[in-house]
């Protein structure tokens, strides 16, 4: 017998004495690998499903897709269009206001701010929003936006088409939705 075979034989006898045996050891290793593979596949499936499930579960946003209802998310964020985090909702009596606003082509709205959370959908035209620091963002027909809160800004109807938009305000009773700013004092 060669030295390597002797060592292997000696190792097998040693393992055999402990009740494991070479065959059992190979079989156990194979089963463990197979079990590990099955576990890995199962966990991968569970992990992938858990990540994707909210998309599937909420794809109709609670409406019955079986009845042909289609839901398209236009905006869903915790931040405003300039990246600021939305403030907490007010503590008082909630007040929802929905306005349809039409801005003639070429008109610039006066400097103002909104003390309440609001969002809009542009039905027609192109609207440019501008902050006091010069930051600008442009929205066109079909775009949705989450407006800045307590931040002075202005809006302008760009192009030849009037801007037509629906604005949804989530405010508090007796709190104005828009406050105009005196251009002389910025207040």
Set out the fold topology.
Blueprint lengths: L2 H15 L4 H36 L36 E10 L8 E2 L3 E8 L1 E6 L4 E5 L3 E3 L6 E6 L4 E10 L6 E2 L7
Antiparallel strand pairs: 1-8, 2-9, 3-6, 3-8, 4-5, 4-7
- Lateral strand order in the biggest sheet: 1-8-3-6
Taken from the alpha-carbon principal axes, the silhouette is extended
Count of helical stretches: 2
* Proportion in helices: 25-40%
Terminal CA distance: 99 Å
The topology string of helices and strands comes to HHEEEEEEEEE
* Structural class assignment: alpha+beta
Output the radius of gyration.
32 Å
User: Could you say what the CATH topology of the largest domain is called?
Assistant: Jelly Rolls
Largest sheet: 4 strands, antiparallel
CATH superfamily of the largest domain: Jelly Rolls
Beta-strand share of residues:
25-35%
Per CATH, the class of the largest domain reads Mainly Beta
Q: Which CATH architecture of the largest domain would you pick?
A: Sandwich
Low-confidence stretches: 4-24
